[in-house]
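Team,

Forwarding the record for the chain on the shared tracking sheet. I've put the sequence and predicted structure together so nobody has to dig through attachments.
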Amino acid sequence: MAEEKSTNENGKEKASVANVQLDELVEIKTGEYKGKKAKVIQVRDNSVIVELGMKTKAGEPVLTVVNHKNYKKLNK
C-alpha cells in the first residue's frame, strides 16, 4: 500500500488513508449502493469517486462518492 504524503496548514506531513488506485475495483459496504462493485475513477483525501455502471437511456456513467471507510478493495 503506497501512502501519499501531503502537508497540512501547519506544515506537518500527513499520510493519505487511501489504499486504492485508479481503475481498481471496490465493493461498497454501506448506503444505497451496498454490495455493489464499482471501479475507482478518482481518489480524494477522504473519499473516492467510483463508476457503478452506465445509464441505459442516456449512455452516461453512474458515479458516486464513497468515504474510505465505506468500501472494501477487491482482489483482481
